[in-house]
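Hey everyone, long-time lurker, first post.

I ran two proteins through the pipeline my lab uses and got sequence/structure pairs for each. Pasting them in order. The first:
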Amino acid sequence: MRVLFIGGTGNISTACARMALSGKIDLYILSRGNQQKPGLEGASFITADINNLTQVKSSLDGMVFDVVVNFIAYIPEELERDVQLFSGLCGQYIFISSASAYQKPLSHPIITESTPLVNPYWDYSRDKIACEEVLMKAYRENGFPVTIVRPSHTYETVIPAAIGSWEDFTLIDRMRRGKEVIIHGDGTSLWTMTHSRDFAKGFVGLLGNQQAIGHSFHITSDEVLTWNQIYEAMAEAAGVRLKAVHISSDFICRIADGMDQEWMRGNLLGDKANSAIFDNTKIKRFVPDYVATIPFREGIRRTVEWFDANPDRIRIDEANNSLMDAILAAYSS
């Protein structure tokens, strides 16, 4: 099976690429630079910018794929481009959407693929919804062979905090320096963390799956944790005692707005301030052997060890520190 990944070296896509290669898939990775990573030696890299249509058409001239996966599409215009580019040239097109597109706040606590898509707080989520609408219109009207996948909070080479880190090491460094960190609300809302290697198990099972065309899926762990438990696991992985301050999401967003960090409103009110419990029945029905096996306590330990193994990965984002310090100072006053 010949498969093309558009973007294949990121936090989620690297694990998916490695698992695809282990299954003897003929994998091509289209990216702007040949970012070879361990475990991807069997992939064929195509150097091109997906946003440069002339360059991409030249690089893919004459190539037909069983599956095309776009990990890095965020706005409707990018999907309109892909529909034109790959119509008739692939047997399945998989779009990586986002579970943040699901209804906020939820009218029912259990999230299924039929949960409404509406997010009044986050433009990122609304753009993903609009992308899905472009693809489903193409499927209904012209038979474009789309499958939609909605990851939730998925991690391996990132620190999956609600406040304080993502690709950087700021939050763990802060914990190790004995500084306070912020947990939104009282820390008892429920959340789901999914390790990228677990996500990849379900995802690779959808590649070339004819029955999945026209369908949408989320792929998450079945482990449900409170945010208190999540931050406690992070502190344990860092080898320190947690020093947490609980602050309401509204207050956090108000201070962030004043610092031109309006994205925090979508990040919290449009996503992480809400409980998220996912029903994975559908992905298990289409991929019967899918099961997530890496608990967050173990997964975050591996992630911190991955950062610690290479000093070049230890990047401290002072903007994150400044934001946390400003919120804490405003709260204490």
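...and the second, right after it:
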Amino acid sequence: MSTVSVRKTEDYRQDTLDLAVANHFDALQIEKDLRPGMKVTIKPNLLTARRPNQAATTHPNLALAVVKWLRDRGAEDITVADSPAGPYHAANLRTVYGVSGMNILEGCARLNYDTGWKEIPCPEGFRNRCFNIINPLADADYIINIAKLKTHSLTTMSGGIKNMFGSIPGLQKPEMHYKYPGQEDFANMLLEVAGTVSPDITLIDAVEAMEGNGPNSGDRRYMGLTLASRDVFSQDYVAAGLMGIEPESVPMLKLALAKGLFSPSDICVTGDFTQNGLKPFRLPDSKKFLGFLPDFMRGPVSKAAALFLKPLPNLDEGKCIGCGKCAESCPPHIIRIADKKARIPKKGCISCFCCQEVCPAHAIEVRRSLGKSL
């Protein structure tokens, strides 16, 4: 039986979050896991340099609540670590910590500046032989994954499973997009990263989530919830339901179900679980183009539509600031900067939407292209 704890968490006040974390960890009996001298690594979602009120990153007060809970029970070796978009170096980490508010943890936890990684072998039976995993996660005795609940232009939703993709260092993540351009292959890679790193517990920050063109360019959506579970797959299944998203429309969950990684009938939800009054999340533009068709037509039409209605990034030149982050993160390296503006050709685009994900000016949106790519 997989327990998923859902708690009403009305705001980001520290006392509210302290109580929520205590209730979650009590329901999951986390205190029994702790032992003297263990290395604990907290893995938040630090996608890029975004302020807490933009709902793109894990709220720092939730991370602080976890750190306080651990320290109250004798844990001393606590590291906060993630690999945000862009180069994995100390200057980028320092910027992201500062803008996201994670620097409030200094003094009670270690903010990671170790930018090395280790090759970690995958469990037997995985398609991948190994993954490069950032040192703080590779060396941890205990991993606490703190995701941010969001819609996602490529994977439909971003929760606990997708958050573990931040275990891959820096610009090696776009390489993974290029290596696995197909939706199922990319979803399998995400499942295998999560299975290799294997977080001991996952929390989801859904006090304020994101809908629309997530994970970076969407709109804030108040939910007033936090979730926690030892089983990241069951937890994302429950989270998808709370978002009003059909779980099998999420590539990772569809594949996890097919692989038998979890069973909906074995999920026990405890706490304040309710879907009453929760309006379905608005999906990313990249997921909408077949929405007007009846279900029985979507399969036959989707293959033909893929040739003519391929989702592609579209630049709003008026918003573009020419920073080059899109070019830096483009897996096939087709984006260039000319005359202080990004140039995004259709030819060669794999529709991974990494450019949209990292754009600080929200200058990239998804559109459909009629006819073949130019």
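Reply from user beta_strand_b:
Welcome! Quick read of the second one: The chain has a mean pLDDT of 92. The domain at 289-369 is CATH 3.30.70.20 (Alpha-Beta Plaits).
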